[in-house]
Amino acid sequence: MVNEEDPSANCTTFQDVLDRAKKRGDISEATEDAFWTVLLSEQGLDENLIEILKLAYFNKSTKMIEGYTVTNPDNKISNIYVAAENGTYTFKIKDIVTGKTYTKKVEVNNVDESIKDKYQVVNSLSKHVITLQNKETSELANFSKAYIIVEGELKDISNIIKINESKNYNYIYSNNLLNRFNGGVNGVENGKEYEFIFINDEGAWKGKAVVQRELM
To answer: 172: which of 40, 48, 70, 130 fits an S-S bond (Cβ 3.0–4.6 Å)?
Structure first.
């Protein structure tokens, strides 16, 4: 539509449209939030267009209408990637409108590789708790962020992190993870093994554990 109104615009991606709109002074910054804020406040959207946009571009994870998808270095559809080692990592960005795929390389050089094997993801003895364990001391550890990979997609589950106050460690309770009405994740099945990523002050730690419901 932009190119139809002004052929010299030569916009091939939604980001091109955002950059052009900012340059023209139509929006304060070249972001989707700024674009939709101005559009909705000044023009509004009819119901049919809203449904079309949701169907084509709505991202359930971010709860935003996006014109692109991001594939991280693990070949999973997510713009989140936890680098456990130093190196160069490549992300693929696909423009949904044009079908074109672009690459973005990110250089990581701040990982302390001397402690990269310090912790491991484990199930507790009771099986229904998933946590982080110090390999050397076997002590359970704290973490502030948590992710699970389900059907190739990285899901943030930090909202259901719990703490054992008496022994001072964090954990994920399988029953909460399986309960989609209590912060759980769609697609997670009881008795199946999944890959988890836990993040604490010392780094990011990947590992597999079984999601096992506790019978009450």
So the answer is: 130
Distances in Å between the Cα of 149 and the Cα atoms of 23, 70, 116, 157, 193 are 39, 15, 20, 10, 10
Q: Which of 119, 97, 104, 26 is nearest to 72 (CA)?
A: 104
In angstroms, the CA 26 to CA 20 distance is: 9
Give residue 58's pLDDT.
58
How large is the angle between the packed helices 14-24 and 32-42, nearest 10 degrees? 70
Task: Tokens for 142, please give them.
Answer: 């704290």
Radius of gyration of the chain (CA): 21
| pLDDT tens digits, one per residue of 101-121 | 888 888 888 776 666 678 999
pLDDT averaged over the chain? 79
Cβ neighbours, 10 Å, residue 212:
21
Q: What is the pLDDT of residues 61-105, one digit of tens each?
A: 556 556 677 888 888 777 677 776 788 888 888 876 667 788 888
Q: Evaluate if pTM is beyond 0.85.
A: no
Distance CA 212, CA 21 (A): 50
Instruction: Report the distance separating Cα 214 and Cα 203, nearest Å.
Output: 30
Q: How far apart are CA 185 and CA 208, in angstroms?
A: 17
> Do the Cβ atoms of 68 and 93 come closer than 8 Å?
yes
